[in-house]
Amino acid sequence: MIVVDEKLHRPFEVVLAIPVRTYDIDFVGIVSNIVYIRWLEDLRLKFLDEHWQLNQQLEQGYAPVLAGTEIEYKRSIKISDRVIGRLWLSNLGRLKWTVKAEILSNEKLAAVATQKGAFISLQNGRPIRIPEEFQKKYCQYKNLI
Asked: Per the database entry, which stretches of residues form a coiled coil (predicted)?
């Protein structure tokens, strides 16, 4: 079930079933807000595994870094809920990238998030232009839709 407008394109979308663990629950019996950050990290790692292999980036001397996260919580998640995360590339600029995500609980929207980042040189820690191979892949995707 896609919660966000079905007409929207979601370049390089990944989907992840997310188990709710006992240590994810706070004293009120719901998933703690900080857990959503970990889930977003899990989604970004899956995204990298499937589309922009992190090991290759490191070998070439650069890596993605996170510059910011915004999360809007829509409903609480409990330990017995079935949770699915979705993440996709929403923008790729000259220097920065943006991913969007949604967390569904029992097929209902529980949270939406936006994360922004860049790539940095491992040699000096400074931002670099978005690697050409990623620009090409993104442009190819946009030309297909």
From this structure: none
3-state secondary structure of 111: strand
pLDDT averaged over 10-residue windows placed end to end, the chain, 145 residues: 55 97 96 97 96 91 96 97 97 95 98 97 96 88 71
pTM over 0.85: yes
CA distances from 120 to 63, 80, 117, 131 (A): 6, 40, 10, 10
Q: CA torsion angle for 25, 75, 12, 131 (degrees, to 10)?
A: -70
Closest CA to 131 of 50, 40, 59, 67: 59
Which residue reads 């407008």 in tokens? 5
User: Which residue type does 13 have?
Assistant: E
